[in-house]
């Protein structure tokens, strides 16, 4: 880790057990193409059991999987859009996240999920 990484961690208050879902839009000439890369990031200093880590990773993958599900299922996409419009838009996101109760699930696999919001889902890296 270099000094800039340490500064970023301090600025964003990342903790060893944080799981971060990074959404990186693909752009051409400054305009979003409709494609995104979604990556689940976490520290190499995670201090939870292997089972808990696996549960959290599975939960993050479930969150990320809603993107291709919205692409494939118009009813699901409309359901999510309506939910966001009615329950989340205009609220303080930090309070929404703090009020959300996490759930545990079990899974194994890598920690990078790449998705294309255009026409196809990209495979794992």
Element layout with pairings:
Blueprint lengths: L2 H10 L6 E10 L2 E12 L7 H23 L1 H14 L5 H7 L12 E2 L12
Antiparallel strand pairs: 1-2, 2-3
Over all CA atoms, what is the radius of gyration?
16 Å
Shape: globular
Beta-strand content estimate: 15-25%
Low-confidence stretches: 98-125
The string of secondary-structure elements, in order, is: HEEHHHE
Helix content: 40-55%
- What is the residue-mean pLDDT, rounded to a whole number? 75
Cross-sheet strand order for the largest sheet = 1-2-3
**Oligomeric grouping of the chains:** single chain
Instruction: Compute the separation of the termini in Å.
Output: 23 Å
Give a written overview of the molecule.
This protein is of the alpha+beta class and 125 residues long. It has helices at residues 3-12, 50-72, 74-87, 93-99; strands at residues 19-28, 31-42, 112-113. It has one domain (3-113). It has a three-stranded antiparallel beta sheet with strand order 1-2-3, with helices on one face. The longest helix has 23 residues, at 50-72. It starts with a helix and ends in a 12-residue tail after the last strand. Mean pLDDT is 75; it is low at 98-125.
Compact overview of the structure:
The protein is α+β, with helices and mostly antiparallel strands and 125 residues long. Helix content is 43%, strand content 19%.
List keywords for this structure.
3-stranded antiparallel sheet, 19% strand, single chain, alpha+beta, 4 helices, 125 residues
């Amino acid at each position: 880790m270099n000094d800039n990484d340490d500064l970023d961690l301090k600025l964003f208050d990342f903790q060893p057990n944080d799981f971060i879902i990074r959404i990186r839009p693909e752009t051409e000439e400054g305009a979003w193409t409709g494609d995104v890369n979604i990556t689940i990031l976490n520290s190499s200093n995670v201090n939870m059991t292997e089972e808990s880590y696996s549960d959290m990773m599975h939960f993050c993958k479930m969150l990320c999987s809603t993107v291709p599900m919205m692409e494939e299922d118009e009813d699901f996409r409309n359901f999510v859009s309506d939910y966001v419009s009615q329950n989340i838009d205009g609220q303080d996101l930090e309070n929404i996240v703090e009020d959300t109760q996490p759930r545990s699930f079990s899974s194994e696999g890598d920690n990078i999920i790449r998705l294309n919001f255009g026409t196809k889902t990209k495979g794992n890296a």
